Amino acid sequence: MKNRWSDKDAADIVRRYADQGVGEDLALRVYTSRLLGADPRLVQHGGGNTSVKTTAPDVAGDSLDVLCVKGSGWDLEFIEPAGLPAVRMDRLLALRRLSTLTDEAMVDAQRGALLDSTAPNPSVETLLHAWIPAKFVDHTHANAVLALSDQPDGEARCRSLYGERMAVAPYCMAGFSLAQTAAAVVEAHPRAEGMILHKHGIFTWGDSAQKSYARMIEMVSMAEAAIAAGANRSLPQAPLDAETAPLHQVAPILRGALAEALGGGRWSRVVLDHRGDDAAITYAGGEAVGRYSQGGPVTPDHVIRIKPWPLLLPQPRIGDLAAFAAAAVVAIDAYADRYRAYFARQDAAAGGGRTMLDPWPRWLLVPGLGLFGVGDTAKAAAIAADIGETNAAVITQAESCGRFEGITEADVFEMEYWSLEQAKLGKAKRAPLAGQVVAVTGGGGTIGAATARAFAAQGAAVVVLDRDLEAAQVSAAACKGMALECDVTVSGDVGDAFARIAEIHGGLDILVSNAGAAFTGKIGEVSDATLRESFELNFFAHQSAAQAAVRIMRQQGTGGVLLFNASKQALNPGPDFGPYGLAKAALLALSRQYAVDHGPDGIRANAVNADRIRSNLLSSDMIADRSQARGLSEQAYMGGNLLGQEVTAEDVAQAFVALALAEKTTAAVLTVDGGNIAAAVR
Ligand code: ZN
User: Fold this and answer.
1) What is the distance in A from the centroid of ligand 1 to the CA of 194?
2) What is the pLDDT of residue 631?
3) Distance from Cα 290 to the centre of ligand 1, integer Å
4) Which pLDDT tens digit goes with each residue over 220-278?
5) pLDDT of residue 336
6) What are the boundaries of each domain within the chain?
7) What secondary structure does DSSP assign to 213-247, as a single string?
8) 563 CB contacts (<8 Å, ≥6 apart)?
């Protein structure tokens, strides 16, 4: 592991923060915290914490001894001075006299000692930082240290590697008792440069930010070298007796099996995030995966994100997906039963009275394919997959030189059902479209981009499709979605794009079939070519996209919604708009046909009838021509409706969202035109 300290970068950051009134101690604390945070082999997603003992003025101007320690909700990789709130040292040192303190009282005392009452909660490991005498203290959950420590003889391995340089503290639950235990260990080893927290992580310290960081890198590198020296085997693989089915066919089956039926045709769905590199495939395909993957997380923190164990699934064999689908349902039910039994057993052992969390897995192991993270948003699924990969990496290392052994089930439970975590229950509100995946064709255009943003705002994972990749990327960036290049008139493109959607998020629930363009010509004179070109884009492309979407939806077995941009022309033909209007009229019929044929699959189909939207569909030239033809100003033409208001792309986007949320509505047309009685649906 490389030491990435740079004198120049350190000086730059000190200078930059000095301009903002931030002192050198805190500036350097920010610098090395970010160095630690940037390496996923050290910490991930809010894990780890750092501190510096310095001085800060209180409101009266008196200088106080303070501990600037990582605040909750901050990630080391992106930390700012505000993420290291100052806590009065005298108050923290006074707590050392106590023999017990509840977690709630500890959190309260720490908050009460903040200099800024609006600062985030100081880390739950604040007392441990305060009671270590060194000025700078760094704490990570480094992979290599965990691989060495997470062994039946892990403490002995650490002692023999580090000797007197590192103190070793036995496993202890985070909070007050860990701080007491660790502080006593540090006092017994006054010359130690750091401390191993058995089966949890590593602390290093020093009188400068550079020294504490350098020690972290050195100690972790020593663990890496010891593992490499002791490594005598890679994970033996279980033989696969057939070819594995492709990811894009397997993922929708898993996603469907993981969805929870809420009754009345409603589902609570999840988003998947697949990882299929060699490491993931080797880990999932190991002969002993049933043992090494089920022994708890590699550090206690991870249980909050990924539950005590991943779900193990059988290999999905090509040509035999029905058997895999049945096995997946059985395996998921068995996982939930096992989780309920674990909860009942450990809750009773710990005195009872806790509220059970949901019993569903957060990551999956699939021989032949690798691992999947599971979450109710794309981000949550990615975090679960990242932490799953870290667990796989640590356990693979541990098994290469010994045998992985995590913390006990009781310790896992104590962390998962920590009172500080239980207090957060019920506070997170699930967004209306959380867990759902939406694809928007023509997603780079005005209406498409507004629609992508509107669905993202409701919690959906969004995939933007457009034949112009750059436009798709701009639109996707605005809604934190994914961009895919796809010309919907090319059926190969459509097939590839929908397979990619299944690979990226595990499937699809909502299609907004929006791509289109206006074609004009007097119907008695227009060329066949123009008419056919319009039908390709304004009818057949919708059919290709809808068919690809329905295929995925049926694999999932959890219904879905098709939403078509039908336009006003489908109902109220305008002069010279035949080529466009005829295709749109057929599109409206297509929407109703899907409602009829796939209603029994729980798939709804609805259309939006919109008019006079300033968009790439109706170019400014066309708007100018049409307003001129009616002898109106452009503004009067655009707002020429019963409400006298211009209709925007956002209005159309809201209509698509409303139709997605209207769970009992199918074969409907929703008008978004500010009122045009000639185009009203009869
Ligand atoms: Zn920790």
Assistant:
1) 14
2) 77
3) 27
4) 999 999 999 987 788 999 999 899 999 999 999 999 999 998 888 889 999 999 999 99
5) 96
6) 7-230, 247-422, 437-674
7) HHHHHHHHHHHHHHHHHH---PPPBPPP-SPBPPH
8) 510, 511, 512, 513, 605, 606, 607, 608, 656, 659, 660
**DSSP track, 320-360:** -HHHHHHHHHHHHHHHHHHHHHHHHHHHHHTTS-PPPPP--
pLDDT tens track for 622-646? 777 777 777 777 777 777 788 988 8
Query: pLDDT tens digit string along 176-226?
Result: 999 999 999 999 999 999 999 999 999 999 999 999 999 999 999 999 999
CA of 370 to the centre of ligand 1 (A): 28
pLDDT tens, residue by residue, 404-413: 999 999 999 9
Distance 179 CA to ligand 1 centre (A): 11
State in words which class domain 247-422 has.
alpha beta
Q: What span, in angstroms and rounded, lies between the C-alpha atoms of 110 and 324?
A: 51
Ligand 1 mean position, distance from CA 303 (Å) = 12
Tell me what pLDDT residue 617 has: 56
25 Cα: distance to centroid of ligand 1 (angstroms): 23
Distance 176 CA to ligand 1 centre (A): 13
What tens digit of pLDDT does each residue of 275-331 get?
999 999 999 999 999 999 999 999 999 999 999 999 999 999 999 999 999 999 999
The pLDDT, as a whole number, for residue 180 is 94
- Distance from the alpha carbon of residue 445 to the mean position of ligand 1, in angstroms: 46
Tell how far the Cα of 442 is from the centroid of ligand 1, in angstroms.
46
Q: How far is the CA of 277 from the centre of ligand 1 (A)?
A: 28
CA of 142 to the centre of ligand 1 (A): 10
CA 117 to ligand 1 centroid distance, Å: 25
414's enclosing H/E stretch is: helix 409-416
CA–centroid distance, 301 to ligand 1, in Å, is 7
In CATH terms, 437-674 corresponds, of 3.40.228.10, 3.40.50.720, 2.60.40.3080, 1.10.443.10, to 3.40.50.720
Residue 670 neighbours by CB under 8 Å, 6+ apart: 606, 607, 608, 609, 655, 658, 659
Distance in Å, CA 527 to ligand 1 centroid: 71
**Do residues 109 and 91 lie in contact, with contact meaning Cβ atoms separated by under 8 Å?**
yes
The per-residue pLDDT for 616 is 52
Q: How confident is the model at residue 620 (pLDDT cuts 50, 70, 90)?
A: low
Mean pLDDT of the chain: 94
Tell the CATH topology of 7-230: L-fuculose-1-phosphate Aldolase (3.40.225)
Centre of ligand 1 from the C-alpha of residue 57, in Å: 30
Q: Same CATH topology for 7-230 and 247-422?
A: yes
Whether residue 464 is predicted with pLDDT greater than 70 in this model: the reply is yes
Q: How far is the CA of 43 from the centre of ligand 1 (A)?
A: 9
CA of 578 to the centre of ligand 1 (A): 67
Q: What is the Å distance from ligand 1's center to 676 Cα?
A: 63
CA dihedral (496, 501, 506, 510) positive or negative: negative
Residue 201: strand, helix, or coil: strand
CA 544 / ligand 1 centre spacing (Å): 51
